[in-house]
Amino acid sequence: MRFITKAGLAVGTALLLAACSSGGGGGTASSEPAGTLTALPAPARTATPTPTPSPYGPVLTRYVGPVNTALAKVTVVNNLADFDTVLGEIGTSATSAGTGLRRADQPAEVTAAQTELVTALGQVSTDMTKVRSDIKRKNVCALSSALSEFGQTQGLKAASAALSKLTAAGYPTTFAVPQIPPLQTRSLENGTMVREGRLHGHGVFKVDNGGSSDAVVSLAMDGKSVHSVFVAKGQKASIEGVEDGTYDVFFSGGVDWDGGAKAFTQSCRFSKFQDTLAFETGRTYTSWSITLQPTVGGNAKTDDVDAKNFPQP
Fold first, then answer.
1. Does 296 lie in the same domain as 198?
2. 20 to 30 A from 174, CA-CA: which of 2, 85, 217, 299?
3. d(CA 254, CA 270)
4. Are residues 201 and 290 both part of a single domain?
5. Euclidean distance between the first and the last CA atom of the chain, given in angstroms as a whole number
6. Of 248, 292, 251, 293, residue with least CA distance to 268
7. What's the pLDDT tens digit per position in 194-244?
8. Can you give the pTM of this predicted structure?
9. 184: which residues sit within 8 A by CB, 6+ positions away?
């Protein structure tokens, strides 16, 4: 029995091809190879260049710039509707800036400050939404109080602090936050007449403000206030000398009485009593009393009134 062993050819062994030739007269075969196959060198690899990151200063300015542009509009608004629009622009630009900076490369020495800035920009967006909501719900009902709430928001303060750290690190960028006075809580002395018409009659109008905020109560005719009195929270006041006639009763309540605008600037509410009050003088005179607080057994109903339809006190 015969066994045949298969041997594999070693990979990479040079393959030599030899040709034999015979010459006359018993010549010998040449020992030189007829040809040699040699492996070619591998092609050289070209290294891929590492991208050079953009300079951090221009990147920071590019994202913070639109926020500053929106902030600059705060100083030129002159009504709540325009201010609400600007607040929306500030919130949107702050969100975009935070998203962009979160993805941007930054020098190692400012990583912590940039993280603070990104967090602060998110808070700015949240704060702007809060101020807009307070305007809509009349928690702030005058431009002055809305501006004050805006100026005291924590996001703007935190963003300014983070930008100060970046400026100290050699990347000067600041927020153009206007200087705005804080919220006020102005009031009048209880019983002060905000509007005083002819008080030559004999009628008496008494008000008991058992509510949690100050109020101004008005006796009105034909949609216009005739007499208006300031009644501090928890206090009583009266108007004496009311002339004969039938009056509608309006009252507004809130915080921070703006004497110039004759309106509360915060937590505003506007109401009207459904029933009118008739003052008549004969053998006797008329005296009416109202209470500005829901009372068990009370017989006076009120309706909310839109601020646009409310007679100025």
1. yes
2. 85
3. 9
4. yes
5. 128
6. 251
7. 999 999 999 999 999 998 999 999 999 999 999 999 999 999 999 999 999
8. 0.77
9. 144, 145, 148, 256, 265
